[in-house]
Amino acid sequence: GMIQFHPADPLVLSVAKDGAARVWDLRAGGPAGPPLPCAGGAAAFTPCGRAVVTADESGAVEVRDWRSGGL
Predict the structure, then answer these.
(1) Band of the pLDDT at 39, cuts 50, 70, 90?
(2) For 42, phi and psi rounded to 5 degrees?
């Protein structure tokens, strides 16, 4: 797995071995949004922090709103 801190807010992005990326709210101590599909295990916040970019093993990339999970 991997983790990354949000560029401005007290949030952490994690990628688990189950293929899901999750954003965690450090203040609340729980998830800040729904699990995001991340089959390749690579994910990062965008520089502005409003979205998460995920990549799978085939090289396909998705940009999702981490609050809603929408593309």
Answers:
(1) confident
(2) -115, 125
